[in-house]
Amino acid sequence: MSAASTAAALPQMPFGRLAAIVVSRPLRVALAVTALATALRLVDTVDSDVAWQLWIAGRIHAGAHLYRDIVEVNPPLWFWLAIPVERLAAVLQLPIVTALIFTVGMAVALALWATNRLLIDVEPGRRTFTLGYSALVLMAMPWMHVGQREQIVLIGTLPYAALIAARSQKRTVPPFLAILVGAGAALGFALKHYFLIVPALLELWLFTSDRKSWRPLRPETLSLVTVGVTYAAAIIAFAPEWLTNVVPLLRLAYGATGAPTFWGLFGPFTVTGLVILGLCASQHRRLAPFEATLSVAALGFAAAYFIQSKGWAYHTIPMVGCGSIALVSLLTQPGGLPGSLRLLAPALLAFPFLLAADDESHPALPSPALLDAISGLNKGDTVGFLTTEAALPWSVTLQHGYRYPSRYMGYWMMSAIIRNERLGSPDPRLTALGRQIITETVEDFRCMPPQRIVVWRPRRGEHAFDILPIFLRDPKFAKLLSHYRVRDRTSLETYELVSALQLPKSGCLDLG
Q1: Residue 13 within any structural domain of the chain
Q2: Which of 345, 361, 377 is the last residue of a domain?
Q3: What confidence tens digit (pLDDT) does each residue in 7-56 have?
Q4: Are 315 and 400 found together in one domain?
Q5: What Cα–Cα distance (Å) separates residue 468 from each residue in 122, 206, 435, 462?
Q6: Strand pairing of 383-386 and 452-456?
């Protein structure tokens, strides 16, 4: 199908010639979509995880040591990637969220440029639709979760899938382009060890497609290995505490987080992604190499989602994204889908954006109760939180410019600690961890006394534990809280500082 025939297939209109010109310029269309989505996104905020990531980048610049002064469970790469974003914001005098969104938009543009180069054999009209839709998937679908690791890995996976497809067709790829694509993909895959399933599956697919000509040593595989080895060495050199302090903590307590049941993993994004993946799989004989590699990547990301077993919607982003782009490419292929499925596919391709729009228009946080709990506070005020739900403080802290006094993002570990208490023979390691967390919280709050402390008191039936009674058992914490009076008693109790705390003479690090 030529560009002219693609334009002719569009509804007849007086701008037919303009349509023909548009569909013949794939990269320009994709970059225009990216620029528009980025510009619209600049005025919005970020989710709680990304807010914490950006706050950590600022604290590292101020002298804090990750995993020693700040307790964080994720490997360091995601936070290291935020450091240049924080510096860019400081140099240009921009809000850090604006700098992040601009950086993500540039990464999307670079991924689309590389993908366009690698799909040069695809007719321009088809490429225009595929790349234009890809721009929406990369930049607009993760609207609420911009900057999340899942969006970053999706950005890197798109050109990498196109590169593997080109290898299967024995097309010549410039070494510099292959190195660039491999390095970009490696940074995404390195963000979570679960993501390594994807390059492994893609390499297996390439091997099985033509065993005789398969070569393991290629510019992109050397890039993957180089980035991986460099990252491992950097952890040992600059963040050894992640291995010595955090990994044991993860093994001890992280299993208590996540979906309460297996069926809790099947949210609307998950079901949509699985249906799209199933549709692509049912047409495996019709799939072109690019569509096949994206389907394989989607399968790998689906496996990563279920292995993590958290049920969080943003974990589905790369699965839904890869599957959707594979489907739109298949849809634009002459004879790519039989008649009945050609009617179903457009609805499936639109559904992820409808779900994303619904999430954006009905955010769970900040809730009215949380907004009431922080009412009257000003930018620069110090606000402490006691909650097992880390999204609670980080839906408002960075966004409102509050100073945050704790080394902990949230007290998710307390769920495992309380469950441990209820056992007939509790694990003494978890008991000791609970005492350590409360002691360190008292130290943090004394170093940077919160003007207000917000405490989540879950109601009966909520999937959470009330941790305030555990904290109040500690005499030092009870004494600290005696300097506060209750402002409100709701599901979010707020305590206002009424008498000065005695500050420690030394040993304090300003985490605000």
Answers
A1: no
A2: 361
A3: 444 444 455 555 566 666 899 999 999 999 999 999 888 999 999 999 99
A4: no
A5: 60, 54, 13, 16
A6: parallel
